[in-house]
Amino acid sequence: MLPPENVRVVVDCGANVGITSLFFAAQYRNARIYSIEPDPDNFALLKRNVCQERRIVPICGAIVGYQRKQVYLTTDAPAWGNSIGTSKNKNTVAVKAHTIDEICREHELTHIDLLKVDIEGAEKELFANAHFLERVGCCIVELHKDYALDALESDAGTWNCRDVEPTRENGLKMISIWPKT
């Protein structure tokens, strides 16, 4: 989707155990990859899996749409399917919350060439507050739960972006968002 030699910054939201981050590192040799994962067990595996690739920066926490200190992550689904819960209970764990803007400030990022978002339902809140799209070259998104393509289209359109939904013809498995030209 992007010329590999031009990609310098990749942000992998919902990095799980790091397999996609490793793929990005192999695909985009000039890129630094910021891999954000909230699940503590997945994050431990992520760190172990990417430790030999210095261009991957593991970040523990959940990506959210508005600033706050922490959120509660469910723990009763499979390791790849836990999501931000509504409150603290026996099936949740407190995790640090990060906005895209906070990640950019903390790591001095002015532009994100590729933003991958697979955050198990939190994308609804994230894209409702999507001013970060102004600094993104391409975003790929997996939608979950009650956040449908038309809602993403509306939210992205607010920031002068268009989406390309997956089809057999374009070979995409996830929805991509691009600045309108």
Helix content: 10-25%
SS-based class: alpha/beta
Quote the average pLDDT. Answer: 90
Radius of gyration: 16 Å
Beta-strand portion reads: 25-35%
Cross-sheet strand order for the largest sheet = 3-2-1-7-8-10-9
Give the CATH topology: Rossmann fold
The total beta strand count reads: 10
Summarize the helix and strand pattern as letters. Answer: EHEHEEEEHEHEHEE
Structural shape: globular
Q: Main β-sheet, in a few words?
A: 7 strands, mixed
Name of the CATH class: Alpha Beta
CATH-wise, what's the superfamily? Vaccinia Virus protein VP39
Uncertain segments are none
Under the CATH scheme, which architecture would be assigned? 3-Layer(aba) Sandwich
The total domain count is: 1
Question: Could you list some keywords that capture this structure?
Answer:
single chain; 181 residues; alpha/beta; Rossmann fold; 7-stranded mixed sheet; 3-stranded mixed sheet; 10 strands; globular
TL;DR?
The chain is an alpha/beta fold and 181 residues long. It has helices at residues 19-27, 40-50, 100-106, 123-128, 149-157; strands at 9-13, 32-37, 56-60, 62-63, 70-74, 92-98, 112-117, 136-141, 161-164, 175-179. The chain contains 5 helices and 10 strands; from the N terminus they run E-H-E-H-E-E-E-E-H-E-H-E-H-E-E.
How would you sum up this structure, described in words?
It contains 5 helices and 10 strands. The protein is an alpha/beta fold. The chain has a single domain (4-179), classed as Rossmann fold, CATH 3.40.50.150. A 7-stranded mixed sheet has the order 3-2-1-7-8-10-9, sandwiched between helices. Strand 7, helix 4 (123-128) and strand 8 form a beta-alpha-beta unit. The longest helix is centred in the first third of the chain and has 11 residues, at 40-50.
